[in-house]
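Entry 12.
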Amino acid sequence: MGMNVDIFVTYYGLNSLLKENVGTNTRFSKDFDEMAGPMMAMMKQKHMPSWYDTLKQAKEMGNVKIHGCTMTAELMGQKKENYDPIIDDMVGVATFVDAAQNSQVTLFI
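Predicted 3D structure (tokens):
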């Protein structure tokens, strides 16, 4: 759609992007726990890309940046080099919120 996209990843999302974890996270939110099995089966049957492959495809478009949360990384004892290169940089939440306040669209997922 021609828009720049910035994604801020923290806690479970950031943990999922550790090099050792990429591609292994297939968990659903506890809010949708009863739907997890059937949903994963449907996604596999319909050859839907994983969340990680979807992020990679978005980044290949050239207008998507993924920012990891510095506080979460520090809490987990991690450094940027421990994460998949899909993460562009590490920033604090205040830095991200400052940049996001002028955005056209904001989604919290």
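Annotation: The domain at 5-100 is CATH 3.40.1260.10 (Hypothetical Protein Ychn; Chain: A,). The first strand starts at residue 5 and ends at 9.
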